[in-house]
Fold these 4 entries.
Entry 1:
Amino acid sequence: MLTISQLASYAGVTVRAVRHYHAKGLLVEPERDHSGYRRYDAAAVVDLIKIRILADAGVPLSRVKELLDAGDDDFKKAVAEIDKRLRLEIRERQGHRERIARLVHGDGLALPPEAVAYLERMRELGIPERMIQGERDAWILVAAQQPQSMEPFIRSKVGQLDDPSIVETYKELEAMLDWEPGDPRLETIADQIVSQLEAISPEDWAAYTDADQAMPDELVALLDSMFVEQVPVARDLMRLVEKRGYTGWTKLERIKS
């Protein structure tokens, strides 16, 4: 007869596991002998080994008892069902692994390749990471709501990065993130933004506005609200730009006279 420690050793499990199987009703717990110890026979070792094998194979403990008591046909049917469930779980977990792998690439987690390439281009041009992160978050919202429109949206933005003045404005805007409302330097920023808008050719302006027109008003409002929430001077800047003839932020439009 064996002690619980010896039983566990023969079956290749821990004493804690044996007690857990007792609690689950999978392994019969013998009465204590006159010395106060529980003693196990060879049959208990065999049962415990079967339980361990089934558990190691991924069989839920809730079904182990059913399999131990099943006849050959029922056992085969139950195993086939469990195997089907495990295969489904493997596919699900593989999907999880693929999503986790995408986390390594950061921007690619929730953005299409063209948006990732656009953000990488910003990095190559030396645009501060805080500005890039703001762009990334905005594009994540757009991609979630308008995935079919991402390509024209991004195309309209990519061309702007060829303008050195726009790249320089991005860099200057990064410092603006820490300014307080009422900062007099906002006048210069507003002048720069409007100057760049005025420099856009009629053809480019048509392409720029055509892409923006595809964006629903609710999404535009959400993106504008994100800018206002994240940048303390956002409202001031938008008011200054409006004084200079343009309204909005995500979708800047000339004010009709």
Entry 2:
Amino acid sequence: MIVVFGSINLDLVTHVERIPGPGETVIGPSYTHVPGGKGANQALAAKRAGATVRMVGATGLDDFADIALSLLLSDGVDLTGVVRTAQPTGAAFISVDASGQNAITVAAGANATARAAQVEGLPIKPGDSLLLQREVPDQEGEIAARSAKARGARVILNLAPAGAVSTSYLAELDILVMNEHETAVLSAALDLGDEPAALARHLHERHGVDMVLTLGADGAAGWEGGVEHRVASLPIVPVDTTGAGDTFLGAFAAALDAGLDFKAALGRGAAAGSLACTKQGAQPSIPTKDDIDRAIAAL
């Protein structure tokens, strides 16, 4: 089983010719609203990749909540760990440019009320996985990680949004997943220069944490027990990169949950993340296990 403790948002998406700079207004022709949130995206990606998944988080009492949970519900993610609060459902405001790149502003809303106690009461056992991100309070994530780790679960943190993470939080992790920007921010915070391998070595030697670096069109790199692995992405033409990193992580975690080795899990994550870039929207673009199998078989 995979437990995801994280954010649940409604994404408001508009397509623009270019991402606006500071003080600039750019007009988009229209907008759509689709389910999102890094936690919810990763939960759906893990479920579609074949895992049994339980989502833990918080939404508001508003109409946005029903839309934000709709695909999780229809795909069979267990939502008994989701609470409703008086705060509004989280929202993300996303601009997607002509090349498929995006800029995102997130309003936390109810996500700020998610609490580790929602995880501590779950029947987590050895072999299960806990997925975490940073769109719910870090202190709650750390407590949830400690609870799950004590019961023998694998703990994976996606360091997104980017930022430093405490040594006490690192001590509860098994795997830290980051993109290039997030890696650079953490490396700078630890005064480790700009070489990802140096950060991976530090995490392994000081904290016993494996590291995954997502590289977009260049695939992904992973350091397991200090040993580096590289995998390629699929050759695709990107339409919308929103949610690609979350899709990678959900498929990666599902592969580990199914017993695949670290490098094979990286490969499935990279394939899933690539496929997610070929369709519009975060959750609607997430591929199924069969989609991933077919893509890998065609290589």
Entry 3:
Amino acid sequence: MERLNYQHLFYFWNVAREGSVTRASQKLGLAQPTVSGQIAVFESSIGAQLFRKEGRKLVMTETGRTVFNYADEIFSLGRELGSALKNRAGAVSVRLSVGVSNALPKLVVYRLLEPALAAHNQIICQEDKTERLLAELPVHGVDLVLSDWPATGGTDARIYNHPIGECGVAAFAASELQQRYRKNFPHCLDGAPLLLPTSNTALRRSLDQWLDANSLFPKIVAEVEDSALLKTFGAAGVGVFMAPTAVRAQVEEQYGVKHIATLDGVSERFYAITAQRKIKHSGVVTILEGARNWLA
């Protein structure tokens, strides 16, 4: 392939977004055979299949996903260029695609992304399990993954960890439970109703070790992967839960709960994971600098 045909790429991008040739044809105002034919020409020119049929569904191949991620960025930049030319005096947004581990506290995520928002970055957030997000880095599905644990040696060699800080962990509860369990901490948690993150999170592993070290056997009433849902359970008085001390004020205000105590020897670490050893994206640089100034 000597030269990329952007018209063919545009047709492919629309079909991938719509999930069907029929819907993409209607959106583009073209006949269905025309769109199908142009995609066939595009596949021939790049020497790879972009879609496969699964029953009645049209699913992208691995090559298709790679091409789509690049196309999404290309046409997003085109929209940004159009906006910049239309309003030359205004601030131009820089697109930043961020993968967020679903185990991360949402209040922490917002605080980490806040400097990039203030610097006129257009943030596209994708929340998922860390493993699936890491798979998007080499194919440019995301620019950055925020996680509570680093990528290990078993992942792609082109993935790099950037530690961005850590903070303590504290126990919180609705007012009635807080009154009951604020004395003689942590021994008061023995037999207490406790809300925990699921076992696939770094915080859960740290909490299990802390409970064992203190010979505590609480009543685990729920294990919740999503940190915001876990806090919602806690706000309803279901049990005591843990959250980062860095967002203590926000947790208390947003969920109407009260701080019980800080856990000795337990901390939560945060990592920015990228496909480059040396950070080039200005938005990622802004996030890292802001986080290191905020977190210990």
Entry 4:
Amino acid sequence: MKAPGLVLAALLAATAARDATAAPPGEAPRDLAVVGLLVDLEKMVEMQQSLGWTIDRYEIDEMMSPALMSVCSAPPEARVAALDVLDARIRDLGGPVEEAFRRRGGDLGEVADLLFATRVRALLSEAMRRAHGPDAECPFWLRPSPAFRGRETDAYRTTLNLEGGGLVVLESADGRALLGAGGSARLLLGRGLNERWTFLAGGEFGGTAQLDQTETKTRFPISFVAALPLVLRHNDLTWHYEAEIASLAYFTQDDPRVSPGLRLGALVGVSALRVRNIMPWAGIGIALEHVLETHRRPAQWNLKTGARLGFDWDF
């Protein structure tokens, strides 16, 4: 994968220069600033490529505002180190990209990783040019910080996550299966372990209505689930992947007595860039729930799937 390769290279380069770039006590190490800057720019380029990359100059102009927000926040030495990492990566991949493209028969697919790294470097180089000199475009209120960790990740920060969406549910109990639909909402507190991993925990509440049709009547019984999900999220630039385990309490409109249960779930999502400290995302998830048997209610299995929208607030 292109992005992990750049991040690993950044860590190795920063480790080799640690003595020369060590941060003062209480501040984040310079290598975290380099990695954070690279991840930010890689995410911007990946998003822009997904829309269809055409003319370099205009594509870079399109990304310049968020790029400057990251570059202007990063220490000058982190900007230079990130540029060095990209130069080394381009050399390792056989660049410059124009020459590699000709050598490989004019096939863009053969130079995809090299082209990606070249575009990230071009974005960083242009943003650095605009961040320096008498006509610098950095806002006066945005100062370089040794504690910079990137803007487009949750790395080393605490976030509040509001999520919600629709559900399609298959409930199975006592040999009967009922199909239903509904929705749920959750509020999670997240902690970025690094640029790639985030841990989240919080509360959720949802409800679904099932279609229960017999020869004599049609009913729409409503069931409710309250849950305490624990989520591990793997971030890969614009994409993220989640694994979830949750304890839950199940009850129905007809019988409000609670039955305990467990859930295992997974989700694939795609995120946008932050706007005013909020990163929106959308995804599709699936979960399997088991409601434990009690003297009040038989054991039950619920299979759920649906789309989810989320907002990651870096407060």
